[in-house]
Design goal:
The complex is a heterotetramer of chains A (207), B (175), C (212) and D (197).
Chain A (H helix, E strand, L loop, with lengths): L1 H19 L12 H8 L5 E2 L1 H9 L5 E5 L3 H6 L6 E2 L8 H7 L5 E5 L4 H12 L5 E4 L2 H10 L10 H18 L6 H26 L1
Parallel strand pairs in A: 1-5, 2-3, 2-4, 4-5
Chain B lengths: L13 H19 L6 H15 L1 H6 L1 H7 L5 H23 L15 H21 L4 H10 L3 H20 L6
Helix pairs in contact in B: 2-5, 7-8
Chain C lengths: L7 H20 L11 H7 L6 E2 L1 H9 L5 E5 L3 H6 L6 E2 L8 H12 L3 E5 L3 H13 L5 E4 L28 H5 L9 H13 L14
Parallel strand pairs in C: 1-5, 2-3, 2-4, 4-5
The chains are: A alpha/beta (207), B mainly alpha (175), C alpha/beta (212), D mainly alpha (197).
Chain lengths: 207, 175, 212, 197
């Protein structure tokens, strides 16, 4: 009898030793490297500044802009309505709660789209859903929306529309003494639709 | 061994019983992602009984309404079926080993009446305690230990520690 | 305690369980690609200056031939055929995890070389570089510029493209001038246009009416 | 077949009750066959004449735990998806102490009392009846207990995290401790006078 119990005790302790040597598992759910690489190769995560602005102007409730730059830069200037989540605070509980909201499109941006894309990769790896990157980042946003250039005289109607939209959006965010805001709002909304179609068409191979 | 197998004194090797129970517990985790339980079934039957008898009262009570609000919660049903299974399983084993018999088991030093009162009080205390700890010996302690949850191990130690202490106080009930 | 003496069934059960576990372990196939960094370690990759190669460093590395570095071109093969850094190896993003690619990368690692990942832009090289770092190629470095800056042409280094760098470009002067949105910054316009000519595929939308 | 099957959606929820019944049968059978339908056999653990509870309980815990660890390692199961009872420090300890008190008086715990009911133990029936009353009392007096019940929530805390060690180390120590307890139980059993029941 005793011998058998010795054997059994040996077996369970051997199994225990086996457990002891199991590598520590990252308990967070992760996207497999192969799938992550495929996601990296897929440019659909990039949203253009115009599309984002369009949704901002429409006050789309499913849009959340996340500024991943340092807090000082965020305080200096950021896209209106964006929240700040410095890259190094990505793994905090508070940040995770924000990222794991299911029904919201989270758009990351930094000065360009390099840091934000790196953050995107880590988020994607952690299984965050509906997460995007603002193409070109805030620099691009600033140069297209805030400091938009007047198209040349030969520009196409599409470009003129886009220009109108940007001006209107900029006024929407920052106001303008020259034009009164209230009557223009209707115009903004109308233009918004036109522009969205136009930009979709252009990314489809217009150029 | 085969001779006395049906006289009610046959028990399987406790380690075998443990391994079998462990496999059942593991199977439960593997299939449902949750552990076993027993007091949860009592809770859901009490909640639904009160809800049937006095629905307004049940809705007003914060504790009942906690479990009534998600009345479609599959877990409460799940546990009731599981406990029905426990009774069936116990009955099968009792039949197999010849233990089906109405009887009151107690120390020779006490009367049947004392034993039944003690059992009832013990049951009441266990009922209260299991609600505090969010599970009983099987639901919180055993299932919790299998997944190394803190609540499981703390509850297990609290149960066995205090049971050890109190059992010596009430030694007369048992030996 | 005579039930303690009956150990046969117990032994059989335990042995059966052990067999299942052993069979499981023997047939176990670990995925050959797995993360070696956890998420917080990956997060630490960001902004680590030791893991990136600036355009200036890259140009000097191109000049010396100590063989300590190897350029990995992650653009597609068509772009690679059209022109690439001397001695660069082409591993398109899509083929990063293929056997041959991994063998190449492993060889580079074994030879003690650094693998500099570059693409059309830093943006393009970014993902593959992070992927390689996360699956354990600690010698992978990110080139923080655009392919044009690796052009053998000596003045290419001056073609720094602020549009793609993480340097904040927003000037408060322009912010204050918001009420007059028509005013434009001439220098910014110029750089944008340079980008457009050199790196056509990066920009898709008709941002300032020049591209199309 | 990566478990847990139902949360992963591999087995439809409609099978839930059938599975519950089958697992319950297994649960009840192993309890009864090990002798958990007898309160005096159970109580033997505390007086040292029969350590069946200790043996069954810890063997079951380490078996299930070992299975979960190996299945998780082999990728057949996702340990992180398993439900963990939330840990409310005070209420877990108070509840455990009250349950221990009830254990000492009643000689059963809920699961074992149901197997006792199944084979006709009248004391087990009283105990089970007491359970219902106890839950009822708790629910009725819930406003009194609410503070303790909901205080100090640590969520789905794991014991190894609280102790600051790796899960594998804790699992190994638990197995060693269990084997040690089994050995100790055998020694104590030899010394303690047999109780006839």
């Amino acid at each position: 009898m005793n011998k058998k119990y010795l054997l059994l005790a040996g077996i369970i302790i051997a199994l225990g030793v086996g457990i002891l040597f199991m590598p520590a598992k990252d308990t967070t759910k992760q996207v497999q490297p192969e799938l992550l690489l495929a996601a990296i190769d897929d440019p659909s995560r990039f949203l253009t500044t115009d599309d984002i602005t369009d949704r901002l102007v429409k006050k789309d409730p499913t849009l959340l802009l996340i500024d991943v730059r340092a807090e000082s830069q965020y305080k200096a200037f950021s896209v209106p309505g964006a929240i700040n989540m410095p890259a190094d605070s990505l793994l905090t509980v508070a940040s995770q709660e924000i990222l794991n909201q299911g029904e919201i499109d989270k758009v990351l941006f930094s000065n360009s789209d390099v840091t934000s894309d790196q953050v995107w990769i880590i988020c994607k790896r952690m299984g965050v859903q509906r997460i995007y990157v603002m193409q070109g980042g805030i620099n691009k946003w600033f140069s297209t929306i805030v400091k938009t250039e007047k198209p040349t005289a030969t520009a196409s109607a599409k470009d003129l529309d886009l220009y109108q939209f940007r001006i209107a959006a900029c006024q929407h965010f920052f106001g303008s003494p020259e034009m009164s805001v209230s009557p223009k709002k209707e115009a903004v909304k109308k233009k918004v639709n036109v522009v969205k179609k136009a930009s979709e068409a252009s990314s489809g191979g217009g150029c | 061994m085969a001779k006395n197998k049906r006289d009610g004194s046959f028990y399987i090797n406790p380690y075998l019983g443990g391994v079998l129970l462990g496999l059942v517990l593991f199977g439960t985790y593997y299939i449902t992602g949750r552990g076993l339980g027993a007091s949860g079934a009592v809770k859901s039957s009490v909640v639904s009984a009160v809800h049937t008898v006095a629905p307004v009262h049940a809705d007003n009570n914060k504790y009942y309404s906690k479990f009534l609000s998600d009345d479609a919660s599959p877990m409460s049903n799940w546990l009731v079926f599981e406990v029905i299974g426990v009774i069936v399983g116990g009955f099968l084993s009792g039949t197999l080993y010849g233990r089906l018999k109405f009887k009151i088991e107690h120390s020779p030093k006490i009367t049947n009446r004392t034993r039944l009162v003690a059992a009832l009080v013990g049951g009441i205390l266990f009922g209260v305690g299991s609600q505090f700890a969010r599970g009983c010996t099987s639901g919180a302690a055993l299932s919790g230990m299998a997944v190394l949850s803190a609540s499981g191990i703390v509850t297990m130690m609290a149960i066995f520690g205090s049971a050890y202490l109190f059992s010596w106080i009430f030694k007369k009930l048992w030996i | 305690m005579d039930e303690l003496n009956k150990t046969n069934r117990l032994t059989i059960t335990v042995v059966a369980i052990v067999l299942v576990i052993i069979i499981g372990l023997v047939t176990l196939r670990r995925p050959d690609i797995k993360y070696t960094l956890n998420t917080s370690e990956s997060l630490a990759l960001l902004g680590n200056p030791a893991l990136v190669i600036t355009p200036e460093q890259a140009v000097s590395l191109l000049k010396d031939s100590t063989g300590k570095t190897m350029f990995i071109d992650i653009r597609n093969s068509i772009a690679f055929e059209r022109g690439h850094v001397k001695n660069a190896i082409n591993i398109p993003v899509r083929e990063l995890f293929e056997k041959t690619s991994k063998a190449t990368l492993r060889d580079i690692e074994k030879a003690g070389q650094k693998a500099i990942i570059y693409g059309e832009s830093q943006q393009q090289a970014n993902g593959p570089w992070m992927m390689l770092q996360q699956i354990g190629y600690k010698n992978a470095l990110l080139f923080t510029g655009n392919y044009v800056q690796l052009d053998p042409n000596p003045d290419s280094i001056t073609k720094l493209l602020p549009q793609f760098s993480e340097t904040p470009l927003i000037d408060t002067a322009a912010l204050k001038a918001l009420t007059a949105p028509k005013s434009t910054d001439k220098t910014a316009t110029k750089t944008t246009e340079t980008v457009k000519k050199k790196v056509a595929p990066v920009k898709k939308e008709a941002s300032s009416g020049g591209g199309c | 077949m990566v478990g847990p099957l139902i949360p992963m959606g591999i087995i439809p929820e409609t099978w839930n009750n059938v599975i519950a019944l089958l697992l319950g049968v297994g649960f009840g059978f192993s309890l009864e066959a090990s002798g958990f339908s007898s309160s005096r056999k159970i109580m033997g653990t505390f007086f040292g004449y029969d350590f069946v509870v200790l043996r069954v309980f810890f063997t079951a815990a380490i078996t299930a735990m070992t299975g979960i660890f190996y299945f998780d390692y082999m990728g057949w199961m996702d340990m992180s998806m398993l439900y963990i009872n939330p840990y409310y420090i005070m209420s877990a300890i108070i509840g455990g102490i009250i349950m221990g008190f009830g254990f000492a008086l009643g000689g059963f715990c809920p699961g074992t009392s149901f197997t006792g009911v199944a084979i006709g133990k009248i004391d087990a029936m009283f105990f089970s009846g007491g359970l219902f009353i106890g839950v009822f009392i708790f629910s009725e007096l819930y406003p009194l207990f609410q503070g303790i019940y909901n205080s100090q929530n640590l969520g789905d805390a794991k014991i190894y995290d609280l102790l600051g060690m790796r899960s594998t180390v804790f699992a190994f120590l638990l197995i060693v401790a269990a084997v040690g307890m089994f050995y100790g139980a055998a020694l104590v059993e030899k010394k303690v006078k047999k109780v006839d029941y």
